[in-house]
Amino acid sequence: MKKGCKFGTHRVIEPKGTLPQPAWKIDNNMDIFDNEILINVETLNIDSASFTQIKEQADGDVEKIKEIMLDIVEKRGKHHNPVTGSGGMLIGTIEKIGPDLEGNIDLKVGDKIATLVSLSLTPLRIDNIKEVRKDIDQVDIDGKAILFESGIYAVIPDDIPQNLALSVLDVAGAPAQTAKLVKPGDTVLVIGGTGKSGMLCLYEAKKRAGVTGKVICLGHSEKSLDRVRKVGLADEYVVADATKPVEVMERVSEVTDGEMADITINCVNVPNTEMSSILATKDDGLIYFFSMATSFTKAALGAEGVGMDTTMIIGNGYTKGHAQIALEIMRESKELRELYEELYA
Amino acid sequence: MKKGCKFGTHRVIEPKGTLPQPAWKIDNNMDIFDNEILINVETLNIDSASFTQIKEQADGDVEKIKEIMLDIVEKRGKHHNPVTGSGGMLIGTIEKIGPDLEGNIDLKVGDKIATLVSLSLTPLRIDNIKEVRKDIDQVDIDGKAILFESGIYAVIPDDIPQNLALSVLDVAGAPAQTAKLVKPGDTVLVIGGTGKSGMLCLYEAKKRAGVTGKVICLGHSEKSLDRVRKVGLADEYVVADATKPVEVMERVSEVTDGEMADITINCVNVPNTEMSSILATKDDGLIYFFSMATSFTKAALGAEGVGMDTTMIIGNGYTKGHAQIALEIMRESKELRELYEELYA
């Protein structure tokens, strides 16, 4: 065996000199290096934007979904959707730990973990696709994957069922970033607040903004808003099409007396919602784009185009303690946990 | 005549309900609405990423460049490059001011202005392309353009020549954002520091970081670094290929004793530099992506992939006072002004 780069550059096939994530193709040979970890994969949790695209391309047909997924991994050595550029995460058990890492990390063979780095950079081999759970973006497989030395992971906790933990961990960055950004008294708008990451963001936003703040949930239908309303995640509920900036601006203006949001968190996995986020936010406000469907140029040029001095942040899927923060929500809120189990686990 | 939307939605042809920037096609009929301004265009300053792409597509041939530009405007009603998604800006004289605006703004017919909103949302008609200045991304035309009520602009100052002012205003957001971000003592890395926006960022960074800070200029060649070195814009000068993350990380590590940058400003208009920016920055540092070639997903997944808790900001071309801040640099630094005139005016 031999020592690899901690970031995994030794597995990049093309183009050379890049890291595994931006690389087009990486080596998914499952003989591990001295500082790698081999995982026996059970379940892939495909990124929501990616899985939506795959389902559309397959016209919802399960066999076609399987074909597309196998083809991606065959071509790239990783489940890195070439259309959306996004990945997802996986759950599995530790099969082997490289000698350089053994004893230096809190893992042992047999532990069940979720990888908290994207599938878009994780060497993956799929031997067989066993089940596609279309409604929750999860796919059970026989296969192996590799975690690099710099890769982050979470051991699946005993008190939270595996599928629930996986669903929560998949979007852990969003609520953790929300927790760090929101201050007491803030008006916070969550676009896509009825979705998988949006609901967790609402929960953290309400906890941090407190009684002097205002948390607004924007969703695309009354039905989805009703679910969130029952759990009491927000102070205001607004139906609007997030791709219609003028409509969103008017709705948010109504519930904020024209003041607009201090912080807008965009969790909606459809394209063309940048401008809605900008127009719904105060001129000196902050927008946190967690959606992988966000276009950098549309956001940058959109704000400039309407002369808004808004701070716009690229959602970083990782922030310190994100797994703990997100999983803790499932322990704190029985109602949200039940809803999450119903929808995503 | 009639009243239009202040953001220009009345000119969107497709898709309906969007704003002019994300729209595929807008109406470039030059009969103005009551709250629009008609501009007699002299010069287009094409966004650097866009013009680089057009030059490559045309193999550097001027007549082909003209064809591509005319084709973009013919198809979209605006100079919105469909490949890069970016625009640029223009200079011209005020030909007509809608009655709703006349007297309420600091402009009169005959004033020479630069529009500070992107060409990617500005209704434009090109009657004739007179001259293509390939090296400075400027194109002289006969044509007209329209400024919406929300559009921002700067009157060309008397003490700065027009072409110089246009070059500076084109990238005004970057130095102004730098001025707002950098604090005394910061280690600041400017990737693409030898370029049009990079040099202005270096100047502001050095002014704000002060004697206790360290400003690092990263460029792709010794020749370009030498130009900047002569003007004394940085404390350290580093040659590296910005698309090679490991190389960039090692060079920046050398000049910071392994500490890396507190703030990294990315001004390099080539794709695949997100990871270099991330690896060159402290785990709790901040990256400001001004480059229009930035990929949202590459940045988001890249940071997550290496477990870095970095704050990443989408460069907003507009911030309050950006035109004044950028133009003032030309008054403050005789040396930088001379270099700027040599390269870009």
UniProtKB/TrEMBL annotation, chains A, B:
It comes from Paramaledivibacter caminithermalis (strain DSM 15212 / CIP 107654 / DViRD3) (Clostridium caminithermale). Signal peptide: none annotated. Residues 205-292 form the Alcohol dehydrogenase-like C-terminal domain. This is L-erythro-3,5-diaminohexanoate dehydrogenase. It comes from the Bacteria. Residues 10-157 form the L-erythro-3,5-diaminohexanoate dehydrogenase N-terminal domain. One of its GO terms (molecular function) is oxidoreductase activity. Keywords: Oxidoreductase. Pfam families: ADH_zinc_N (PF00107), KDD_N (PF26370). Gene3D superfamilies: Medium-chain alcohol dehydrogenases, catalytic domain.
